Amino acid sequence: MATPPTGIRLVAHITSKSFQGIPHLLYTVKKSRKIDVYKLAAGYNKPKKRKPQFIIFGINKDATKEQLNEGLKFKNNLLKDDDSSNPVFSVNFSINTKYGANWIISVKPSIYATIKKGRRLFFEWGFYHLDDFHSVRYCSKCGRLGHSKAKCEETPRCFKCGNNHAPDNCNKAECMNCKAHNARTGKLEKIDHLSKDRKCPFYIEAINKVIVNTDYGLS
């Protein structure tokens, strides 16, 4: 069955990185076009923010994801929850180190502040320190930020300096993100650091974007 003509033509989809910008847009349209702003408002969705994440340090490497999940619920009242469809926390993945496995967990915004204040969680026979975790995509194949190795379409190169050789014996640090920025803009950002150096301006910018797009339950 054909849809009857409405006399309304779709011109463009308008996106906004800031939810606060939408009401201003609606007010402007209403003032200039005299249309039903409430019907227009039904056409936008508030961007969904990510859940806060923590990194728990030094868990036994033999502990599985399931064991950690059940163990954290058993030892920490804050993490006990009967709602399996929307749990208060979830175990995401681990990062192995020589001191054990560091595990990443996501939590509901409503319990973020309490966990942050305590700075530790109990598991098995001990307690383990934790800190905020801000997941920034970094590619070890090309050394750039913003994507992972699995989705990289670049030619493999040294992630330390960006040249076409293996990184194993390379001692030269040159940030590919700052180099690309300088070439594109003519500016002179310092490049004598790795792309994932915590003091790199583009790494800091990426961290800040993660923070802005995270719901910490503080508002």
TrEMBL record:
One of its GO terms (molecular function) is zinc ion binding. Keywords: Metal-binding, Zinc, Zinc-finger. It comes from the Eukaryota. InterPro entries: Znf_CCHC (IPR001878). Residues 139-154 form the CCHC-type domain. This is CCHC-type domain-containing protein. The lineage of its organism: Eukaryota, Metazoa, Ecdysozoa, Arthropoda, Chelicerata.
